[in-house]
Amino acid sequence: DELHVILEYKQGETLGDWIAPSSSRFITSHDHFSGSTVVMEMFFKAIAQFKPDLIIISGIHTLEFQ
């Protein structure tokens, strides 16, 4: 199963005894498919056909390099 969690919090919010010194986000994921070779092949095939002027990639930490 895939799981993606984003927790966003503001400065001063508390969790137990912890107080957030600044606003931020905590992002975690458990996703085997998105970082797979199949998805990467689909991506490169699509951009070769579409030929975009700009590509912005995020979530690189979820990729599994072999």
UniProtKB/TrEMBL annotation:
InterPro entries: ADP_PFK/GK, Ribokinase-like. One of its GO terms (cellular component) is endoplasmic reticulum. The keyword Isomerase does not apply. This is Uncharacterized protein. The lineage of its organism: Eukaryota, Metazoa, Ecdysozoa, Nematoda, Chromadorea. PANTHER family: ADP-DEPENDENT GLUCOKINASE (PTHR21208). One of its GO terms (biological process) is glycolytic process. Keywords: Glycolysis, Kinase, Magnesium, Metal-binding, Transferase.
